[in-house]
Amino acid sequence: MQYKNPESVLVVIFCSSTQRCLMLQRQDDANFWQSVTGSLELGETPYQAALREVNEETSIDIKKDNYLLIDTKQIVEFEIFPQFKHRYAPNVITNREHWFYLSLPHEITPILTEHLDYQWLSYDKAAEITASWNNRQAIESINDIHCI
Fold it and tell me: What is the DSSP string of 38-80?
């Protein structure tokens, strides 16, 4: 079995003109809403992983569309949710996560490949519906980095 790397990225996608962010509904847990997230692949930098994960999960090509991907240089460590621990090697209980923000000039309709549904929500509502404290904290921090 190929275990997940316990190092990942979190990319909060937000629209600067509407002050809303994109939330995605997980396929494996329909009650779980989150921003774009995913593990780093072998030899991949967090920035490269963020570009790849956004494209895989939403079909947004950040470089081609000349969007601004902001590397906050913030790293958090969190305990892996019990329902997802089976994806990691035995005895792995925490994940190291790198935070990014993707600023869009307008809300887009993502092409979903890994999620059931999406919503554009106010920052407050998006932070409210995510079960992940780190995702909540990243959403609540948008205005701290928002300089666009």
Answer: EEPPTT--HHHHHHHHHHHHH---TTTTT-EEEEEEEEEEEEP
Cα torsion 109, 110, 111, 115 to 10°: value is -130
Candidates 52, 24, 21, 22; CA nearest to 39 is 52
DSSP string, 72-90: EEEEEEEEPPGGGGGGS-T
* Residue (of 128, 94, 90, 136) closest to 8 by Cα position: 94
Q: State the Cα–Cα distance between residues 81 and 95, nearest whole angstrom.
A: 10
Instruction: List pLDDT tens digits, range 23-41.
Output: 999 998 899 999 999 999 9
| Alpha carbons 132 and 63: distance in angstroms, whole number | 28
**pTM of this structure:** 0.92
Residue 146 has pLDDT above 90, yes or no: no
Q: Any idea how long the chain is?
A: 148
Q: Which residues pair with 72 in a beta bridge?
A: none
Average pLDDT in the 68-79 region?
94
